[in-house]
Amino acid sequence: MSTAETTAGTPAPADEPGLKRVLGPKLLILFVIGDILGTGIYATTGKVAGKVGGALWLPFAIGFVVAILTAASYVELVGKYPKAAGAALYTQKAFKVPFLTFIVAFMVMCSGLSSASAAARAFSGDYLSELTGDALPPTLVAICFILLLAALNLRGVSESVKTNVVLTLVELTGLVIILAIGAWAVLNGDGEPSRLGEFEAGGTGYALMTGVLGATALGFFAFVGFEDSVNMAEETKDPVRTFPRAIFVGVAVTGTIYVLVALVSSLLVDYKVLEGSSGPLLEVVKAGGVDFPHKLFALIALFAVTNSALINIMMASRLCYGMANERILPRGMARVLPTRRTPVVGIAFVTLLAIGLVSTGEIEGLGDTTSFLLLCVFAVVNIAVLVLRRDPVDHRHFRTPTVLPVLGALTALILASPLADRPADVYIRAGVLLAVGVGLWALNKVVLRVRSED
Prior knowledge:
Layout: H1 25-36, H2 39-43, H3 45-52, H4 57-80, H5 86-95, H6 98-123, H7 126-132, H8 138-155, H9 161-187, H10 205-219, H11 239-268, H12 271-275, H13 280-287, H14 294-325, H15 344-360, H16 363-387, H17 403-416, H18 424-453
Helix pairs in contact: 1-9, 1-11, 3-10, 4-10, 4-11, 4-16, 4-17, 5-6, 5-16, 6-8, 6-14, 6-15, 6-16, 6-18, 7-14, 8-14, 8-15, 9-11, 9-14, 14-15, 16-17, 16-18
């Protein structure tokens, strides 16, 4: 949600100052990579392995292709409409149905909350236990973690792109360590290459297909984040030229790293061991035959999931604030803390939802909920790019081949469907979140109607 164009597509006041354009090509690439890296690969690798078996690399390879398809649609749309409103802007321009635009925006907000909640669960698991032992109750730790993020959010977190670069490099360091351990193991003849072609329970036919689809849908959680980068369009130098390279390079780099990390993980650790750990990459470090400090790697992993969670909580609270400011959520949710100028009601609202999520879900379910919500959004965006071909603009921009958004929409819908062997609790959780949003939207409509009659 941006000040330049609202969820409902209303332009901002003409006298409102624009955002400062500070992002060049290199910084934007690092921003995209940093937005994608984090909780997904550090926390859900083991759960993906539990769904597919030793062929852990396959879901990440398929997820990489799906991400590229949708990324191509985002690249065309951000070049065509270089505004900082993302999927909500594209949905409104394509379909002009305010309720659909609200649903898309609320889904994006909820995906941030479920992602942050998955990170909280990851924080409270085996990575933390490596440092503290098993004495701390995971759910209580996860709730305290969310409350700490809320406190930081309420105080006001001063961020800059240069800080994001540092955070990205730290997160990337952990994955480079995994790849180095894998290279050392291969050179020394360690590991079990035969596992790379094994599928869980030796499934065939339909069972194999749904298993791979389910693993891909969950693994796709690791790729989410590139869609957030389009919200930096108004702070990017020459976004029409800069974004295509930045998004494609960012997705390609992270996708390659993910596939390699998956190969190393399966090569060195049995998938059942990975499945049983909430810190699967720590298991890889322990099995790699390299004397790398386990506690240091655990710290890197905790840093990675904390950074991801903080970014997502901040995004969700600001999106809530923006929707309230545009009168599509109750106006009171836009209230700010006078001393800190932070959206206090929005932060409280998303914190309560996040606490509910971490209290009722585990890493796998919460990660799958994030993927499901964003796959639905991606399906809409891929369709929107085709609809908006009827809306030419007066500047040149990247145009993706028509077949890519068609395939992007189809793959997103397939991975969001029951074919992906997704547990029912994921659909229930997503449904409850959307019901909360629709309830607030309806309440807001009633209040606005009563006030207009007065």
